[in-house]
Amino acid sequence: MTNYSELANGGITLIKPYQAGKPIEEVQRQLGLNDVIKLASNENPFGMGPKAKEAALKCVEQGNIYPDSNGYYLKQKLHDKFGYDPEKITLGAGSNELINLLFAAFVNDKVNVVFPEYSFVVYPMETTVNGAKAKVIPLKDYNADLDAIAAAIDKDTRIVAFANPSNPIGTAISSKSMKEFIKKVPKTTLVVIDEAYNEFNSGDDTFEDTACWTDEFENLVVSRTFSKAYGLAGLRVGYMVANKEITSILNRLRAPFNVNIVALAAAVAALDDTEFLKKTVENNTHERQRYATFCKEHNLFMIPSKANFVAVDFKGYDAQAIADKLLHQGIIVRPLLGYKLQDILRISIGKPSENDRLFTALDKILKEMK
Prior knowledge:
This protein has 14 helices and 13 strands. It is α/β, with parallel strands linked by helices. Strands 2-8-7-6-5-3-4 form a seven-stranded mixed sheet, sandwiched between helices. The protein has a four-stranded antiparallel sheet with strand order 9-10-13-12, covered by helices on one side. The longest helix is centred in the last third of the chain and has 24 residues, at 274-297. The termini are far apart.
């Protein structure tokens, strides 16, 4: 039989397929459970906002028509809402696709990519696929060590990438520190800030809209998504802001009609639904504090989070066994074995009732395991 792995481009066979959080349907099917909650994939626990849902349902009737490949109305809404130049915006099927495109456009076997330890798994995957060398910089107290990252950049560094807030850890780099860092980076190195959890961090008084910095820093690229705070994970829509030349390069590479007609309509409406966004962020802020209190009361270490999830260190317990026990009670959380963080579980922040259920189950499990 032909060995097709030998025919595939070199980097592909060196990576492992992405492991997503378990779907509710899979757990119901495998364990015979009816009442299952998912606190594993950082989705919006309130679902889609009412305005986005209404727009999506209306648009379904136009499913036989190709979407606007340029996404005019969404780009215009982003301009009206945040001031971004439409000519500096690239739209994608979630920010993940846009990151893939950026790496495909700029990364090859003659360059290297720098990113913090425990970064979003897509950065090392895309680095490997495109044949580049990865420079992984250890964290400092669970935070990106900006001095060490700056020191690792050399003439061959094409991209330095951050998730801010980070995934799967949840910590965030302040706007002031990030701006000072970017000033040190050579213009031939792209600074990619992946802000999938941006809305959950923006309550900080010192927070600045980094996408607006692209006017000041020509090598800055900022990606955002509608998957988290806006509740559109299943529709797959995101955007990237960069200088016009980088944007032109990405638009040459992206597939025509890469964002579907329903996603485009829902995203436009979601940007207008300020009440839903406020409800989502306020719930997250309040419930995140409840997680901090629970962890303190149970002598667990919760890494300080600015996202819509918490990473909890269960050192002294078997974290994977805890995840399995929760699973059998119909509560899906995310082990981080793929990141070699065997003591840590990432738990998405749900609605109060979902968090209550998690706290009750976890309290009982920890007592049994003592």
